[in-house]
């Protein structure tokens, strides 16, 4: 019975994906067919344009993420992980944060990587530090931020320094609250493989890597599509005048810009250029909040997190991250920018 339910659940997911792609194709081709006797509303065309741009922007990084995830599945053993990560849970936070520098991937691509590492034995809080740090601490993000704020490079250094501090604090809270309890959602095939142990250890071949990467990509793609579609709806229909009114207040501006970053779901390699365009409208503190929060949590990776982790954990993780980012931004804003 459960097998039948899982089959229909997966089938429904694929049908929804095909339906969305079909709709996008029709919208994209609107005006290309002379048989169309009507013109779609501009808002609908705008939703379509934003949706496609998000997907095109995210797909290369998602592919990178699932490929790295597959390499980890094939070649990284539990024993090797235990040697790399310090046994002290508190000391393990710092190398985990520094490890993010070596993963130049966005917030979407890092999700399957961290999921795979946790399955391999990485402690939960260490994995979440890597998940938060990789999209923001990598050199590509620093360089793009430096270029975007070349007239005020302090923003680039503040982003990197505060991000490092924030993810360490969040990792500490996650360890204190959840310890090493398993918070992953395990698929039936994962449980079968885990129960059989070494009997199901896959062969270390390039073909096997590609097989796992393709399987993970299609499993993850439905969450990316849904998240991108909702984000495009928000960007099209949200009243920007309300955002501008709230952004003029030093107290309300940071949380407003965090919410804006969450909804826009921008790639961390490009969000600095969007943030720089708000400099004449919003305070520096709110711009910094935008730059810190967006790469850590946005709508796209929230959908993915709910797909791979237990619901209560994801909610707690989001609440902790929001509170820590907001608190650090308020403190930094009052100390540095008055």
TrEMBL record:
This protein's membrane topology, according to the annotation, is: Multi-pass membrane protein
Q: Where in the cell is it found?
A: Cell membrane
Residue ranges spanning the membrane: these are: 12-29, 50-72, 92-114, 126-149, 155-178, 223-244, 256-279, 286-307, 313-332
Q: What InterPro entries does this protein map onto?
A: DUF318 (IPR005524), UPF0718 (IPR052923)
List the record's Gene Ontology CC terms alphabetically.
plasma membrane
Q: Which UniProt keywords apply?
A: Cell membrane, Membrane, Transmembrane, Transmembrane helix
In terms of Pfam families, this protein maps to:
ArsP_1
Family stated for the protein in its record = Belongs to the UPF0718 family.
Q: What is this protein called?
A: Permease
Provenance organism? Neobacillus vireti LMG 21834
């Amino acid at each position: 019975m459960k097998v039948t339910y899982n089959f229909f659940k997966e089938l429904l997911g694929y049908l929804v994906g095909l339906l969305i792609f079909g709709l996008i194709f029709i919208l994209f081709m609107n005006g290309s067919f002379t048989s169309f006797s009507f013109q779609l509303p501009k808002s609908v065309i705008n939703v379509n344009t934003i949706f496609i741009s998000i997907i095109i922007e995210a797909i290369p990084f998602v592919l990178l993420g699932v490929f790295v995830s597959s390499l980890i599945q094939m070649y990284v053993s539990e024993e090797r992980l235990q040697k790399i990560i310090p046994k002290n849970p508190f000391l393990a936070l710092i190398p985990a944060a520094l490890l993010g520098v070596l993963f130049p991937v966005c917030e979407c691509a890092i999700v399957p990587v961290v999921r795979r590492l946790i399955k391999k034995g990485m402690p939960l809080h260490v994995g979440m530090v890597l998940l938060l740090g990789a999209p923001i601490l990598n050199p590509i993000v620093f360089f793009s931020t430096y270029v975007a704020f070349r007239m005020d490079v302090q923003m680039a250094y503040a982003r990197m320094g505060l991000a490092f501090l924030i993810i360490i604090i969040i990792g500490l809270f996650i360890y204190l609250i959840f310890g090493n309890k398993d918070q992953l959602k395990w698929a039936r095939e994962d449980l079968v493989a885990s129960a059989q142990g070494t009997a199901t250890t896959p062969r270390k071949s390039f073909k096997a890597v590609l097989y796992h990467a393709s399987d993970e990509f299609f499993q993850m793609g439905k969450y990316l599509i849904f998240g991108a579609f909702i984000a495009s709806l928000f960007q099209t229909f949200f009243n920007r005048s309300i955002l501008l009114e709230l952004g003029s207040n030093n107290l309300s501006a940071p949380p407003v810009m965090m919410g804006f970053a969450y909804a826009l779901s921008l790639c961390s390699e490009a969000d600095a250029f969007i943030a720089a365009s708000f400099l004449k409208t919003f305070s520096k503190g709110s711009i910094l909040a935008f730059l810190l929060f967006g790469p850590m949590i946005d709508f796209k990776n929230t959908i993915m997190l709910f797909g791979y982790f237990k619901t209560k954990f994801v909610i707690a993780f989001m609440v902790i991250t929001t509170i820590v980012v907001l608190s650090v931004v308020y403190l930094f804003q009052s100390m540095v920018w008055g």
